[in-house]
Protein backbone atom coordinates (compact mmCIF):
# COMPACT_ATOMS: atom_id res chain seq x y z
CA UNK A 1 0.00 0.00 0.00
CA UNK A 2 1.41 3.36 -1.03
CA UNK A 3 2.17 5.68 1.89
CA UNK A 4 0.74 9.18 1.93
CA UNK A 5 3.27 11.86 0.97
CA UNK A 6 4.73 13.78 3.88
CA UNK A 7 4.33 17.54 3.91
CA UNK A 8 7.26 19.27 2.22
CA UNK A 9 9.67 21.35 4.32
CA UNK A 10 8.47 24.46 2.47
CA UNK A 11 4.84 23.78 3.38
CA UNK A 12 5.84 23.14 7.00
CA UNK A 13 7.73 26.41 7.17
CA UNK A 14 4.72 28.21 5.73
CA UNK A 15 2.46 26.78 8.43
CA UNK A 16 4.88 27.88 11.16
CA UNK A 17 5.11 31.33 9.59
CA UNK A 18 1.32 31.68 9.49
CA UNK A 19 1.12 30.43 13.08
CA UNK A 20 3.60 33.07 14.29
CA UNK A 21 1.71 35.80 12.43
CA UNK A 22 -1.66 34.71 13.85
CA UNK A 23 -3.15 33.99 10.41
CA UNK A 24 -3.27 30.20 10.64
CA UNK A 25 -6.80 28.85 10.31
CA UNK A 26 -8.21 25.82 12.15
CA UNK A 27 -7.44 23.41 9.30
CA UNK A 28 -3.84 24.62 9.06
CA UNK A 29 -3.45 24.40 12.82
CA UNK A 30 -4.53 20.75 12.80
CA UNK A 31 -2.06 20.04 9.98
CA UNK A 32 0.76 21.73 11.89
CA UNK A 33 0.01 19.74 15.03
CA UNK A 34 0.10 16.48 13.08
CA UNK A 35 3.38 17.38 11.39
CA UNK A 36 5.02 18.28 14.71
CA UNK A 37 3.91 14.98 16.22
CA UNK A 38 5.19 12.88 13.36
CA UNK A 39 8.36 14.61 12.14
CA UNK A 40 11.35 15.34 14.44
CA UNK A 41 12.93 17.67 11.87
CA UNK A 42 9.69 19.71 11.82
CA UNK A 43 9.84 20.07 15.61
CA UNK A 44 13.44 21.29 15.37
CA UNK A 45 12.48 23.92 12.79
CA UNK A 46 9.48 24.95 14.87
CA UNK A 47 11.55 25.45 18.05
CA UNK A 48 14.18 27.43 16.16
CA UNK A 49 11.55 29.66 14.54
CA UNK A 50 9.60 30.47 17.71
CA UNK A 51 12.77 31.25 19.70
CA UNK A 52 14.02 33.53 16.94
CA UNK A 53 10.61 35.18 16.62
CA UNK A 54 10.47 35.92 20.35
CA UNK A 55 14.04 37.28 20.28
CA UNK A 56 13.35 39.56 17.34
CA UNK A 57 10.30 40.95 19.10
CA UNK A 58 12.36 41.71 22.20
CA UNK A 59 14.92 43.51 20.06
CA UNK A 60 12.21 45.45 18.21
CA UNK A 61 10.60 46.47 21.49
CA UNK A 62 13.92 47.84 22.80
CA UNK A 63 14.33 45.22 25.50
CA UNK A 64 17.52 43.87 23.85
CA UNK A 65 19.66 46.26 21.84
CA UNK A 66 22.10 43.58 20.75
CA UNK A 67 21.90 41.13 17.89
CA UNK A 68 24.59 38.98 19.43
CA UNK A 69 22.11 36.30 20.41
CA UNK A 70 21.31 35.56 16.79
CA UNK A 71 23.84 33.01 15.69
CA UNK A 72 24.64 31.77 12.25
CA UNK A 73 22.77 34.52 10.44
CA UNK A 74 19.48 32.63 10.68
CA UNK A 75 16.64 34.37 8.85
CA UNK A 76 13.12 34.41 10.20
CA UNK A 77 10.64 33.89 7.35
CA UNK A 78 8.31 36.84 6.86
CA UNK A 79 5.43 37.37 4.53
CA UNK A 80 5.12 40.56 2.52
CA UNK A 81 3.44 43.29 4.49
CA UNK A 82 4.25 41.88 7.94
CA UNK A 83 4.28 44.76 10.37
CA UNK A 84 7.47 45.60 12.25
CA UNK A 85 8.15 47.98 15.08
CA UNK A 86 7.32 47.93 18.78
CA UNK A 87 4.89 45.22 19.81
CA UNK A 88 3.97 43.48 22.95
CA UNK A 89 6.09 40.31 23.22
CA UNK A 90 3.93 37.23 22.85
CA UNK A 91 5.04 35.29 25.92
CA UNK A 92 2.93 32.40 24.68
CA UNK A 93 5.40 31.97 21.80
CA UNK A 94 8.38 32.03 24.14
CA UNK A 95 6.69 29.41 26.29
CA UNK A 96 5.99 27.34 23.20
CA UNK A 97 9.73 27.15 22.59
CA UNK A 98 9.83 24.96 25.69
CA UNK A 99 7.07 22.75 24.29
CA UNK A 100 6.52 19.44 26.00
CA UNK A 101 7.67 16.24 24.34
CA UNK A 102 6.00 13.21 25.88
CA UNK A 103 6.43 9.74 24.37
CA UNK A 104 7.83 11.37 21.26
CA UNK A 105 4.78 13.58 20.67
CA UNK A 106 5.02 17.37 20.33
CA UNK A 107 2.25 19.22 22.18
CA UNK A 108 1.54 22.88 21.37
CA UNK A 109 0.48 24.83 24.44
CA UNK A 110 -3.31 25.28 24.81
CA UNK A 111 -3.20 29.07 24.36
CA UNK A 112 -2.64 28.68 20.64
CA UNK A 113 -6.04 27.68 19.15
CA UNK A 114 -7.20 31.32 19.46
CA UNK A 115 -4.16 33.47 18.55
CA UNK A 116 -4.55 37.23 18.62
CA UNK A 117 -6.09 38.49 15.38
CA UNK A 118 -6.31 42.23 16.02
CA UNK A 119 -4.21 44.76 17.92
CA UNK A 120 -5.59 47.78 19.78
CA UNK A 121 -3.79 50.70 18.11
CA UNK A 122 -5.59 53.68 19.69
CA UNK A 123 -7.91 54.42 22.62
CA UNK A 124 -9.53 57.83 23.21
CA UNK A 125 -11.78 58.96 26.08
CA UNK A 126 -12.85 55.40 26.77
CA UNK A 127 -15.33 54.47 29.47
CA UNK A 128 -15.59 50.69 29.49
CA UNK A 129 -18.70 48.63 30.16
CA UNK A 130 -16.65 45.60 31.17
CA UNK A 131 -13.04 44.63 30.52
CA UNK A 132 -10.91 47.55 29.36
CA UNK A 133 -8.54 47.35 26.39
CA UNK A 134 -5.17 49.09 26.51
CA UNK A 135 -3.30 50.34 23.47
CA UNK A 136 -0.94 47.60 22.32
CA UNK A 137 -3.09 44.76 23.66
CA UNK A 138 -4.34 41.99 21.40
CA UNK A 139 -7.84 40.71 20.73
CA UNK A 140 -8.61 37.10 19.95
CA UNK A 141 -11.54 35.48 18.19
CA UNK A 142 -14.61 35.85 20.39
CA UNK A 143 -13.29 38.81 22.40
CA UNK A 144 -15.88 41.58 22.96
CA UNK A 145 -15.29 45.33 22.93
CA UNK A 146 -17.90 47.19 25.02
CA UNK A 147 -17.58 50.97 25.31
CA UNK A 148 -20.03 53.28 27.06
CA UNK A 149 -18.16 56.33 25.78
CA UNK A 150 -15.14 57.24 23.69
CA UNK A 151 -13.54 55.35 20.83
CA UNK A 152 -11.08 52.57 20.10
CA UNK A 153 -9.20 51.61 16.97
CA UNK A 154 -8.15 48.05 16.23
CA UNK A 155 -5.95 46.78 13.41
CA UNK A 156 -6.41 43.24 12.19
CA UNK A 157 -3.42 41.19 11.08
CA UNK A 158 -4.91 41.27 7.59
CA UNK A 159 -4.43 45.06 7.54
CA UNK A 160 -8.11 45.93 8.04
CA UNK A 161 -8.74 48.77 10.50
CA UNK A 162 -11.92 49.17 12.56
CA UNK A 163 -12.71 52.30 14.57
CA UNK A 164 -15.49 51.84 17.14
CA UNK A 165 -17.41 54.75 18.66
CA UNK A 166 -19.20 54.38 21.99
CA UNK A 167 -21.68 53.45 23.11
CA UNK A 168 -20.79 50.31 21.21
CA UNK A 169 -20.65 46.53 21.56
CA UNK A 170 -18.50 44.81 18.95
CA UNK A 171 -17.28 41.20 19.00
CA UNK A 172 -14.14 40.13 17.14
CA UNK A 173 -15.50 36.99 15.49
CA UNK A 174 -12.82 36.09 12.94
CA UNK A 175 -9.40 37.02 11.63
CA UNK A 176 -11.09 39.47 9.26
CA UNK A 177 -14.35 40.71 10.73
CA UNK A 178 -16.71 41.10 13.65
CA UNK A 179 -20.29 41.36 14.90
CA UNK A 180 -21.72 44.80 15.72
CA UNK A 181 -24.49 44.44 18.33
CA UNK A 182 -25.05 48.19 18.61
CA UNK A 183 -23.19 51.44 18.03
CA UNK A 184 -20.98 52.61 15.16
CA UNK A 185 -18.08 50.86 13.47
CA UNK A 186 -16.03 52.56 10.76
CA UNK A 187 -13.85 50.19 8.74
CA UNK A 188 -11.12 50.48 6.16
CA UNK A 189 -10.02 47.35 4.28
CA UNK A 190 -7.63 48.37 1.52
CA UNK A 191 -5.03 45.60 1.58
CA UNK A 192 -5.10 42.39 -0.44
CA UNK A 193 -5.28 40.27 2.71
CA UNK A 194 -8.19 42.29 4.14
CA UNK A 195 -10.48 41.99 1.11
CA UNK A 196 -13.75 40.50 2.27
CA UNK A 197 -13.58 42.14 5.71
CA UNK A 198 -17.06 41.56 7.15
CA UNK A 199 -19.22 43.40 9.65
CA UNK A 200 -22.32 41.49 10.74
CA UNK A 201 -25.36 42.88 12.54
CA UNK A 202 -28.56 41.21 13.73
CA UNK A 203 -30.27 42.20 10.47
CA UNK A 204 -27.57 42.09 7.81
CA UNK A 205 -24.05 41.23 6.67
CA UNK A 206 -21.78 43.79 5.02
CA UNK A 207 -18.77 42.49 3.10
CA UNK A 208 -15.92 44.74 1.98
CA UNK A 209 -14.80 44.97 -1.63
CA UNK A 210 -11.79 47.27 -1.23
CA UNK A 211 -13.50 49.88 0.82
CA UNK A 212 -14.13 52.36 3.60
CA UNK A 213 -17.57 52.08 5.15
CA UNK A 214 -19.53 53.00 8.27
CA UNK A 215 -21.92 50.53 9.89
CA UNK A 216 -24.50 51.57 12.47
CA UNK A 217 -26.64 49.18 14.52
CA UNK A 218 -29.39 49.82 17.04
CA UNK A 219 -30.46 47.56 19.89
CA UNK A 220 -33.88 47.04 18.26
CA UNK A 221 -32.27 45.42 15.21
CA UNK A 222 -32.15 48.37 12.81
CA UNK A 223 -28.84 48.64 10.97
CA UNK A 224 -27.39 50.70 8.16
CA UNK A 225 -24.21 51.03 6.13
CA UNK A 226 -22.68 53.97 4.28
CA UNK A 227 -19.90 53.47 1.75
CA UNK A 228 -17.29 56.24 1.49
CA UNK A 229 -14.82 54.43 -0.80
CA UNK A 230 -14.93 51.31 -2.95
CA UNK A 231 -17.97 49.05 -2.61
CA UNK A 232 -19.74 46.81 -0.10
CA UNK A 233 -21.87 43.73 -0.72
CA UNK A 234 -24.93 43.71 1.55
CA UNK A 235 -26.54 40.39 2.43
CA UNK A 236 -29.96 40.20 4.06
CA UNK A 237 -31.89 36.99 4.61
CA UNK A 238 -34.51 36.58 1.91
CA UNK A 239 -32.93 39.19 -0.39
CA UNK A 240 -30.53 38.96 -3.29
CA UNK A 241 -27.05 40.27 -2.51
CA UNK A 242 -26.87 44.02 -3.18
CA UNK A 243 -23.71 45.91 -4.10
CA UNK A 244 -23.48 49.39 -2.60
CA UNK A 245 -21.07 51.75 -4.32
CA UNK A 246 -19.18 54.77 -2.99
CA UNK A 247 -21.51 57.57 -1.94
CA UNK A 248 -24.51 55.30 -1.37
CA UNK A 249 -26.02 53.82 1.76
CA UNK A 250 -28.56 51.24 2.80
CA UNK A 251 -30.55 50.52 5.93
CA UNK A 252 -32.43 47.47 7.11
CA UNK A 253 -35.60 47.85 9.18
CA UNK A 254 -36.31 44.53 10.96
CA UNK A 255 -39.74 42.96 11.05
CA UNK A 256 -41.80 40.13 9.62
CA UNK A 257 -40.92 41.57 6.20
CA UNK A 258 -37.48 43.22 6.36
CA UNK A 259 -37.53 46.66 4.76
CA UNK A 260 -34.55 48.00 2.83
CA UNK A 261 -33.71 51.71 2.86
CA UNK A 262 -31.42 52.85 0.07
CA UNK A 263 -29.93 56.35 0.04
CA UNK A 264 -28.12 57.93 -2.93
CA UNK A 265 -26.82 61.32 -4.03
CA UNK A 266 -27.85 62.74 -7.41
CA UNK A 267 -26.21 64.62 -10.26
CA UNK A 268 -27.65 67.96 -9.03
CA UNK A 269 -29.57 68.64 -12.24
CA UNK A 270 -33.34 68.84 -12.88
CA UNK A 271 -33.05 65.33 -14.38
CA UNK A 272 -32.57 63.92 -10.85
CA UNK A 273 -30.22 61.14 -11.95
CA UNK A 274 -29.03 58.69 -9.27
CA UNK A 275 -26.83 55.58 -9.41
CA UNK A 276 -29.71 53.08 -9.07
CA UNK A 277 -32.80 54.94 -7.81
CA UNK A 278 -34.93 56.15 -10.75
CA UNK A 279 -35.81 59.85 -11.09
CA UNK A 280 -39.20 61.22 -9.95
CA UNK A 281 -42.11 59.48 -11.68
CA UNK A 282 -45.43 60.69 -13.04
CA UNK A 283 -46.65 57.10 -13.27
CA UNK A 284 -46.73 56.18 -9.61
CA UNK A 285 -49.80 55.37 -7.56
CA UNK A 286 -49.77 58.69 -5.69
CA UNK A 287 -49.34 60.98 -8.68
CA UNK A 288 -51.64 63.99 -8.53
CA UNK A 289 -52.85 63.47 -12.11
CA UNK A 290 -54.52 60.19 -11.12
CA UNK A 291 -56.75 62.03 -8.69
CA UNK A 292 -56.78 59.19 -6.16
CA UNK A 293 -54.33 60.39 -3.50
CA UNK A 294 -54.98 63.19 -1.05
CA UNK A 295 -52.25 64.88 0.98
CA UNK A 296 -53.09 66.62 4.23
CA UNK A 297 -51.37 68.01 7.29
CA UNK A 298 -52.32 66.64 10.68
CA UNK A 299 -51.70 67.44 14.32
CA UNK A 300 -48.06 67.15 15.32
CA UNK A 301 -48.47 66.98 19.11
CA UNK A 302 -50.78 66.09 21.96
CA UNK A 303 -52.36 69.54 22.01
CA UNK A 304 -53.75 69.10 18.54
CA UNK A 305 -51.89 72.07 17.12
CA UNK A 306 -52.32 72.19 13.38
CA UNK A 307 -49.35 71.91 11.05
CA UNK A 308 -48.85 74.60 8.45
CA UNK A 309 -46.31 74.85 5.63
CA UNK A 310 -43.43 77.32 5.82
CA UNK A 311 -44.51 80.71 4.50
CA UNK A 312 -42.15 80.33 1.53
CA UNK A 313 -43.14 76.71 0.81
CA UNK A 314 -45.07 75.61 -2.23
CA UNK A 315 -48.38 73.81 -1.86
CA UNK A 316 -48.15 70.31 -0.33
CA UNK A 317 -49.42 69.02 -3.68
CA UNK A 318 -46.08 69.87 -5.37
CA UNK A 319 -44.62 66.65 -4.01
CA UNK A 320 -47.15 64.63 -6.02
CA UNK A 321 -46.69 66.32 -9.41
CA UNK A 322 -44.35 63.73 -10.93
CA UNK A 323 -41.21 65.85 -11.02
CA UNK A 324 -38.63 67.38 -8.73
CA UNK A 325 -37.48 70.96 -8.50
CA UNK A 326 -36.15 72.76 -11.57
CA UNK A 327 -33.22 74.25 -9.65
CA UNK A 328 -31.21 73.86 -6.48
CA UNK A 329 -32.94 76.60 -4.45
CA UNK A 330 -36.62 76.60 -5.41
CA UNK A 331 -38.74 76.92 -2.25
CA UNK A 332 -41.92 77.50 -4.29
CA UNK A 333 -41.38 74.13 -6.01
CA UNK A 334 -40.69 72.40 -2.69
CA UNK A 335 -42.76 71.44 0.29
CA UNK A 336 -41.30 72.14 3.75
CA UNK A 337 -42.34 73.06 7.28
CA UNK A 338 -41.46 76.11 9.40
CA UNK A 339 -38.21 76.03 11.35
CA UNK A 340 -38.16 74.19 14.63
CA UNK A 341 -41.01 71.79 15.34
CA UNK A 342 -41.59 68.30 13.96
CA UNK A 343 -43.83 68.30 10.89
CA UNK A 344 -46.50 65.74 9.98
CA UNK A 345 -48.18 65.06 6.66
CA UNK A 346 -50.26 62.14 5.49
CA UNK A 347 -50.90 60.55 2.11
CA UNK A 348 -54.34 59.01 1.78
CA UNK A 349 -54.09 56.64 -1.20
CA UNK A 350 -57.88 56.35 -1.41
CA UNK A 351 -57.94 52.62 -0.81
CA UNK A 352 -55.88 49.95 0.86
CA UNK A 353 -53.20 48.63 -1.49
CA UNK A 354 -50.08 46.45 -1.25
CA UNK A 355 -47.37 49.10 -1.10
CA UNK A 356 -44.14 47.87 -2.69
CA UNK A 357 -41.92 50.99 -2.79
CA UNK A 358 -41.80 54.58 -1.55
CA UNK A 359 -39.32 57.04 -3.08
CA UNK A 360 -38.56 60.48 -1.63
CA UNK A 361 -36.50 63.25 -3.27
CA UNK A 362 -34.93 66.46 -1.96
CA UNK A 363 -32.70 69.20 -3.39
CA UNK A 364 -31.23 72.28 -1.78
CA UNK A 365 -28.08 74.32 -2.33
CA UNK A 366 -28.68 77.86 -1.10
CA UNK A 367 -28.17 80.68 -3.58
CA UNK A 368 -28.22 83.22 -0.72
CA UNK A 369 -25.89 81.54 1.78
CA UNK A 370 -23.40 80.16 -0.74
CA UNK A 371 -22.58 76.51 -0.21
CA UNK A 372 -25.32 75.90 2.38
CA UNK A 373 -27.36 72.72 1.87
CA UNK A 374 -29.26 72.70 5.12
CA UNK A 375 -32.59 71.70 3.62
CA UNK A 376 -31.30 68.78 1.54
CA UNK A 377 -31.06 66.26 4.39
CA UNK A 378 -34.03 63.92 4.83
CA UNK A 379 -34.92 62.96 8.40
CA UNK A 380 -38.26 61.24 8.87
CA UNK A 381 -40.09 58.17 10.15
CA UNK A 382 -42.58 56.58 7.77
CA UNK A 383 -45.67 54.93 9.26
CA UNK A 384 -48.47 52.99 7.59
CA UNK A 385 -52.07 52.18 8.49
CA UNK A 386 -54.73 50.07 6.82
CA UNK A 387 -58.29 50.86 5.83
CA UNK A 388 -59.83 50.73 9.31
CA UNK A 389 -56.81 51.61 11.39
CA UNK A 390 -56.33 55.35 10.91
CA UNK A 391 -57.53 57.40 13.87
CA UNK A 392 -56.66 60.86 12.59
CA UNK A 393 -53.86 61.18 15.09
CA UNK A 394 -50.20 60.29 14.77
CA UNK A 395 -48.50 57.29 16.41
CA UNK A 396 -46.78 59.26 19.18
CA UNK A 397 -50.21 60.36 20.40
CA UNK A 398 -52.15 57.18 19.64
CA UNK A 399 -49.62 54.35 19.28
CA UNK A 400 -52.19 51.58 19.81
CA UNK A 401 -54.38 52.46 16.88
CA UNK A 402 -53.05 50.30 14.08
CA UNK A 403 -49.93 52.17 13.00
CA UNK A 404 -46.99 50.18 11.64
CA UNK A 405 -43.56 51.73 11.53
CA UNK A 406 -42.22 51.11 8.05
CA UNK A 407 -38.84 52.86 8.05
CA UNK A 408 -36.59 55.38 9.78
CA UNK A 409 -34.54 57.65 7.55
CA UNK A 410 -31.66 59.99 8.36
CA UNK A 411 -29.62 60.72 5.27
CA UNK A 412 -26.93 62.58 7.22
CA UNK A 413 -26.23 59.36 9.09
CA UNK A 414 -26.08 57.42 5.83
CA UNK A 415 -23.69 59.89 4.24
CA UNK A 416 -21.59 60.21 7.39
CA UNK A 417 -21.98 64.00 7.40
CA UNK A 418 -19.74 65.71 9.93
CA UNK A 419 -19.70 69.14 8.32
CA UNK A 420 -22.12 70.84 5.94
CA UNK A 421 -19.94 70.55 2.80
CA UNK A 422 -20.07 66.75 3.25
CA UNK A 423 -23.83 66.75 2.65
CA UNK A 424 -25.02 66.01 -0.91
CA UNK A 425 -27.29 68.77 -2.23
CA UNK A 426 -29.56 66.35 -4.11
CA UNK A 427 -30.72 63.18 -2.39
CA UNK A 428 -33.07 60.26 -2.96
CA UNK A 429 -34.34 57.58 -0.62
CA UNK A 430 -35.89 54.30 -1.78
CA UNK A 431 -37.86 52.23 0.76
CA UNK A 432 -38.73 48.74 -0.44
CA UNK A 433 -38.66 45.04 0.23
CA UNK A 434 -37.43 42.14 -1.89
CA UNK A 435 -39.88 42.62 -4.74
CA UNK A 436 -42.73 42.07 -2.29
CA UNK A 437 -45.18 44.42 -0.65
CA UNK A 438 -43.88 46.03 2.52
CA UNK A 439 -47.45 45.97 3.77
CA UNK A 440 -51.07 46.70 2.88
CA UNK A 441 -51.74 50.37 3.60
CA UNK A 442 -54.15 53.13 2.73
CA UNK A 443 -52.44 55.79 4.83
CA UNK A 444 -48.76 56.72 4.77
CA UNK A 445 -47.73 59.14 7.49
CA UNK A 446 -44.45 61.10 7.32
CA UNK A 447 -43.16 62.27 10.70
CA UNK A 448 -40.56 64.80 9.54
CA UNK A 449 -37.79 65.87 11.91
CA UNK A 450 -35.92 69.15 11.38
CA UNK A 451 -32.14 69.26 11.07
CA UNK A 452 -30.23 70.91 13.93
CA UNK A 453 -28.17 73.92 12.91
CA UNK A 454 -24.82 75.12 14.28
CA UNK A 455 -24.38 78.14 16.55
CA UNK A 456 -27.84 77.87 18.10
CA UNK A 457 -29.70 78.68 14.87
CA UNK A 458 -33.27 77.34 14.51
CA UNK A 459 -33.44 73.83 13.04
CA UNK A 460 -34.40 73.66 9.36
CA UNK A 461 -36.80 71.41 7.45
CA UNK A 462 -36.21 69.43 4.25
CA UNK A 463 -37.01 70.80 0.77
CA UNK A 464 -39.04 67.81 -0.46
CA UNK A 465 -39.42 67.90 -4.24
CA UNK A 466 -41.35 64.67 -4.89
CA UNK A 467 -42.73 61.56 -3.20
CA UNK A 468 -43.61 58.51 -5.28
CA UNK A 469 -45.57 55.47 -4.08
CA UNK A 470 -45.66 52.21 -6.02
CA UNK A 471 -47.97 49.29 -5.39
CA UNK A 472 -47.15 45.70 -6.26
CA UNK A 473 -49.31 46.11 -9.36
CA UNK A 474 -47.88 49.47 -10.50
CA UNK A 475 -46.12 49.10 -13.89
Explain what this protein looks like in three dimensions.
There is one protein chain. This protein has 475 residues and is mostly beta strands. It has helices at residues 9-21, 26-38, 40-60, 91-96, 411-415, and strands at residues 100-102, 105-107, 116-128, 138-140, 144-156, 161-174, 177-189, 198-200, 205-208, 211-217, 223-229, 231-235, 242-245, 249-253, 259-265, 294-297, 343-363, 379-385, 404-410, 426-432, 439-448, 464-471. The chain has 3 domains: 9-70 and 88-107, no CATH class; 117-236, Jelly Rolls, CATH 2.60.120; 259-471, Galactose-binding domain-like (Jelly Rolls), CATH 2.60.120.260. The strands form 2 sheets. It has a 20-stranded mixed β-sheet that branches. Strands 1-2 form a two-stranded antiparallel sheet. The protein is elongated.
Structural descriptors:
475 residues; mainly beta; Jelly Rolls; 3 domains; two-stranded antiparallel sheet; 5 helices; elongated
